[in-house]
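for the writeup, i need someone to sanity check this before i put it in the appendix. the sequnce is what the collaborator sent (i think, or maybe the updated version? ugh). structure was predicted straight from it, no edits. if anything looks off just tell me and ill rerun, i have time this weekend
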Amino acid sequence: MAAPHRVVVLALTGLLPFELGIPHRIFGRARDAAGAPLYEILTCGLAPGPVRTDADFAVHVEHGPELLATADTVVVPAAYELGPVYEEGRLTGELAAALAHIRPGTRLVSICTGGYLLAAAGYLDGRPATTHWFHAEHFQRLFPAVRVDPDVLYTDDGNVLTSAGVAAGIDLCLHIVRKDHGAAVANDVARRTVVPPHRDGGQAQFVERPVPQPQLASTAAARAWVLGRLHEPVRLADLARQESMSVRTFTRRFREEAGTSPGEWITGQRVERARQLLEQTDLAMEQVAREAGFGTAQSLRKHVQAALGVSPTAYRRTFRATGGNGGPGGAAD
């Protein structure tokens, strides 16, 4: 009988206990048809002993970094005290020495900002990767050789996989179980963990998009004016008139301030309005479409899918505060 696939989790100072537990919970629940474990999960630190977390307790780690040399898969969860790794994109000598134990060909996995460590070590150069949406822009600036995708829940580039923030680590670990042993095993793990075996869409649906402060821009009056009538048809000439500008001047000023065209900005605001209605009301999809200014449920679906990566019905199912099933508008999806 073959030995279980060994997963070694690297615990770093400032780690998040929730994310440290994800590999143990997901891989540890995977069983074959006879009930035998399919993975062996072990934890190591930069040295044996206590590792401080971001909570009011430490975890005691039995193994040092030498354990990484025995791993088939290495998982790096997020930690809040990465120092030069996060600030400058470089490894400390201690971290470089630890990662040197990893054998060529070992599968590498990061959860949330654990991807900073893989990137600083050069493992992500030229590869697709993701991290928590809040850090994505900083991550890309720090590691320009990495192909950062800020919208997805996880990336899979063969033997190097990365996940977005926090619970996206669950999605990635379930994906790995599904990849290694098939959907039936992954679905069983998901049922035991009481999580969906697969989540629709990506990070885009979780990102807050604040409206720019009107008082900071010369197109402020036009923005405030249109936000009060998103449900109505709006012409570019109407917007320019609010600022007593020509259409050409208004369009140029607007793009300078917002970084996008007036039409694209209005569409974005209508998507935000639709999000609010989907989360907070039971309006049918046709009504949501009219209130948000999209006119029809078909147009609503097209724009929400493009912006958030999921359909309006799927978004409502995920975020509806009362836990409803999408109300009477579900059929429009």
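The first strand starts at residue 5 and ends at 10. Confidence is low (pLDDT under 50) at residues 321-333.
thx in advance!!
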